[in-house]
Amino acid sequence: xxxxxxxxxxGQIFWLFFIFLVAYIIYTHFVLTNLSxxxxxxxxxxxxxxxxxxxxxxxxxxLVESNIQMLRKIYTKIKSILxxxxxxxxxNNFNKSKVVLKDLNSLIIQIxxxxxxxxxxxxxxxxxYSHWT
Length: 133
Description:
Helix content: over 70%
Strand content: under 5%
Low-confidence stretches: 129-133
Radius of gyration: 39 Å
Number of strands: 0
Order of helices and strands: HH
Structural class: mainly alpha
Mean pLDDT: 77
């Protein structure tokens, strides 16, 4: 076979390795560095996004939990105030049931307004509150 002739086989092997070495150097220097940069940037962006998502989730959970605790405290205080006031109104105005209901309604409206004015959360959106919306 003329391709495997002993006279020209060493030149063919030399040029094969030389061209392979040049192609390998070009590939590793230009192509692989760009690919590695792309993968590194994607990895950092994904890592940054996941940490931000986790931090936002933890902050949202904390805010919702503190919101729930604050609302529970407010509701227990309002409940105790309303119970004590209703007992006092019933004792004072035992025969005037319409006046008691009217006073209780005005008291509930006043407490609701004060809660809405002095709270930084909306009463309507208290169940779906999110820091980013």
